[in-house]
């Protein structure tokens, strides 16, 4: 379908057995971790990560339907950089980044007076001055503003970001990497 027709008429679905990898990110499908999904706007077969968007489709009575990232941007008229600003976290494949990182682990994260929540945090080797966070679905029922043991804070301008590691050793590893990054130095790998 042409961009102007997306969502206005039903697409021709590409059959599951015709593809062995996601038609967007090229990740291979397998029975356990990479289920196939169809974009309801273009009909392409995509993985769960690339189909994690929803848009109102005219041909389906303006109901919300699962669509791929590309169709989502066309239908709602949002550019990639606008979406990144809106989410506040650059979306890269977490597993791929974690495998080539200076440090990665789960940390508790709190911003302002919101509750603590668990996030997978990664500092990739190729961007050793950038911290990526991937939200975990559960939010923990801990006091809103109380500091957890093994916590530390990052401040930038007027915003304060609080983190807490599971133990003191992990906290010290993170602090070592962050201190180097703040000085503009490239940290060594801490994942051994």
UniProtKB/TrEMBL annotation:
- List the keywords (alphabetical): Cytoplasm, Cytoskeleton, Guanine-nucleotide releasing factor, Metal-binding, Phosphoprotein, Repeat, Zinc, Zinc-finger
GO: which molecular function terms? guanyl-nucleotide exchange factor activity; zinc ion binding
Q: Which domain of life is it from?
A: Eukaryota
Record's SMART domains? FYVE, PH
Give the residue range of the signal peptide.
none
Q: Which GO terms describe its cellular component?
A: cytoplasm; cytoskeleton
User: Where does the B box-type domain start and stop, copy by copy?
Assistant: 17-67
Report the subcellular localization. Answer: Cytoplasm, Cytoskeleton
Q: Which GO terms describe its biological process?
A: cytoskeleton organization; filopodium assembly
InterPro entries xref list: FYVE_RhoGEF_PH, PH-like_dom_sf, PH_domain, Znf_B-box, Znf_FYVE, Znf_FYVE-rel, Znf_FYVE_PHD, Znf_RING/FYVE/PHD
* FYVE-type domain boundaries: 16-72
- List residues of the PH domain: 150-183
Query: Looking at the keywords, is Transferase present?
Result: no
The name this protein goes by in its record: FGD4 protein
- What organism, scientifically named, is this protein from? Jacana jacana (Wattled jacana)
